[in-house]
Amino acid sequence: MTSDRPRFRLGFLTHVQGRGDDFARTYRNAQELFTVADELGFDTGWVAQHHVALQGGDLSSPWTFLAHAAARTRRIRLGTAITVLPLEDPLRLAEDIATVDVLSGGRVEIGVGSGSSALEYAAFGRDAARKRELASDHLDTLRRALAGEEVGTPGFRVQPPAGDFGGRIWQGVFSARGAEHAAAGGSHLLLNRAAYGFDAPTDEVQRPWAEAYLAAWDRPARPRVGLSRLVFPAKDRRTALRHIGEDVRRAAARMAESGAFPRGLDTEEALRRFHSFHGHPEEIVAALRQEKALPLATDLIAQFNPAVVDHDAAVRALELIATEVAPALGWTPARAAGPVPAGV
Questions:
Q1: Domain ranges of the chain
Q2: What Pfam families is this protein classified in (predicted)?
Q3: What's the rounded Cα separation, in Å, for the pair 37 and 29?
């Protein structure tokens, strides 16, 4: 990223995951990350929806969570990366989104995707074989509902009336074709922290997806590319590995059960497969400057998942990202640059 490019946005993503079954503490700690990020000048805070804990997160109701975060923060934008759209009633979802948007003063971003858990689809009575069709149909309804159109039946419109969501809908994709589809619908692009099912580095796999998306974009508004990455700075590499190494290795073993990763990966190869940036901030900056997809990104979204990091270490990592890593890449805190309008 160079100084002649438009200012990029810095985000963080939490899967709201804890150890054990103390959900109150897990949720409280995750809320605290939003307030810390808000004070540090992060532009966006994202949560991931998981109906099944083994899929890597403990938050099934993201919009309830974000309503609470809206009351605790001042200016950080609030979004989902992602909401599992085929499992949602799109009209009810539009009502929740519009409510949180009003409560937050227009700070909502909505990221959607089709999810991957067969168990979730079975629990909600949805056919996993139709997930792409369902995602497309539900997104169309969601767009129209948020645009204030009549939906469901003549005379029905969602309340409260939603703000302008034309530039605030994102789609998570896992292929160049999916990226082109997102561009055709006018959605912004979300790229996952890892490219599953590939042996090549994640950035080499995802760079062509981002290029396909930008080539297919034909609207006057600026397209946005959100790049999610595992970023964990610490005083040195050894300290970082102590916090994230074993969790990442275990997560790779779980991914191997579904065929997404090879079996028997050691910690270093697991970290590579999850495209991890960890260690001293200077090491991370040097590595991110070599990231092949990052030059096309408008939003860098840092996360610690699949590691479940102790709360104090997570707060310290956010501080290092905001004060040492991101500024070295050309980012300036939102509190200094002024609020970022929706969809720009």
A1: 9-337
A2: Bac_luciferase
A3: 12
